């Protein structure tokens, strides 16, 4: 039987995942806070949710998730599954799980890695926390938008891992910005640095992707500065809860805060490089 899904949040990722789900044969109903001109759009989130087998959240943060959840609560039923793909704070992940348990609907803590291009190709990688049986029932749905699904453990484990990996990504791009500023200042071309990094143990998919666009001054958003700033704050909070000192991500978080104040919130987080005069 054809399955149906409500996609709530049509930003960089949600809009592309909704397209992928449609192409895979799902009946898709979408909703966005700022109305979007799509044939599958509903005026209210509740309308998208009513009767859908799955509800997928691709929202900005914990505040958005809590607000939207309250608006759809009256429409959620025990035979539905809520998939939260938004990167949110751990407290809100546990809150969502509790609310779903009260209603009787299934829930997966299910953030992802992969950016604009991966979403457009249905090639995200999902990190999953929750009940393995719920994952099996949701697998076909998740496969429509992903190339890999990693089960990590109970609810909360995927949120923590997602935040920890974004700590690495933010810190890496800050380090790439500093390295590029130094090599530029010494007259070494960005191509030379990119090539050297590719052959170095410090090389990564992220470095190969970001160094050329940073050098070219292309900061079109794949993952926005304000969303990475949000995730750095989640990382600092997770660390503080356990008494762990994190000077690196605190410095990078401050750099992102400064970038947002300068009007770069909607640019890609690689616009960290704009802090350097020649960028
Ligand atoms: N882009 C990436 O590469 C990437 C990678 C991994 C994880 N993520 C995470 O995935 C989530 C979505 O990412 P994205 O890049 O698609 O973000 P985005 O482009 O910034 O979109 C955010 C979405 O959240 C909605 N929203 C924000 N505040 C809201 C509120 N209070 N109530 C209702 N809706 C609200 C926005 O609606 P409006 O249009 O009305 O503002 C928009 O639909 C985020 O948690 C992000 O951190 C993103």
Automatic annotation (TrEMBL):
Keyword NAD among UniProt keywords: yes
UniProt-annotated catalytic positions: 162
Q: Which keywords has UniProt assigned to this entry? A: NAD, Oxidoreductase
Domain spans labelled 3-hydroxyisobutyrate dehydrogenase-like NAD-binding? 156-276
In terms of InterPro entries, this protein maps to: 6-PGluconate_DH-like_C_sf, 6PGD_dom2, 6PGDH_NADP-bd, HIBADH-like_NADP-bd, HIBADH-related, HIBADH-related_NP60_sf, NAD(P)-bd_dom_sf
Which GO terms label this protein's molecular function in UniProt? Answer: NAD binding; NADP binding; oxidoreductase activity
In which domain of life is the source organism classified?
Bacteria
Family matches, as Pfam families: NAD_binding_11 (PF14833), NAD_binding_2 (PF03446)
Residue stretches making up the 6-phosphogluconate dehydrogenase NADP-binding domain? 4-153
Q: What is this protein called?
A: NAD(P)-dependent oxidoreductase
| Record organism | Oceaniferula marina
Origin organism lineage? Bacteria, Pseudomonadati, Verrucomicrobiota, Verrucomicrobiia, Verrucomicrobiales
């Amino acid at each position: 039987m054809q399955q149906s899904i409500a996609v709530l949040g049509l930003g960089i990722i949600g809009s592309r995942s909704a397209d992928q789900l449609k192409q895979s044969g799902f009946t898709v109903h979408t909703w966005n806070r700022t109305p979007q001109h799509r044939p599958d759009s509903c005026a209210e989130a509740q309308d998208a949710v009513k009767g859908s087998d799955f509800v997928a959240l691709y929202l900005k943060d914990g505040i958005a998730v809590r607000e939207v959840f309250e608006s759809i609560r009256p429409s959620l039923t025990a035979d539905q599954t809520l998939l939260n793909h938004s990167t949110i704070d751990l407290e809100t992940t546990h809150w969502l799980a509790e609310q779903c348990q009260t209603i009787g609907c299934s829930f997966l803590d299910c953030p992802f890695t992969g950016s604009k291009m991966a979403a457009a190709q249905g090639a995200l990688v999902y990190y999953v926390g929750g009940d393995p049986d719920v994952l099996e029932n949701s697998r076909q749905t998740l496969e429509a938008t992903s190339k890999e699904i990693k089960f990590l453990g109970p609810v909360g484990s995927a949120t923590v891992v997602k935040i920890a990996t974004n700590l690495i990504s933010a810190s890496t791009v800050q380090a790439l910005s500093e390295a590029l500023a130094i090599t530029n200042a010494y007259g070494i071309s960005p191509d030379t640095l990119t090539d050297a990094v590719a052959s170095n143990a410090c090389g990564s998919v992220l470095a190969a992707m970001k160094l050329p666009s940073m050098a070219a001054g292309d900061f079109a958003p794949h993952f926005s500065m304000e969303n990475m700033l949000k995730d750095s704050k989640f990382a600092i909070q997770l660390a503080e809860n356990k008494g762990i000192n994190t000077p690196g991500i605190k410095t990078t978080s401050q750099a992102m805060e400064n970038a947002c104040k300068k009007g770069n919130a909607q640019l890609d987080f690689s616009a960290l490089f704009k802090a350097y005069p020649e960028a």
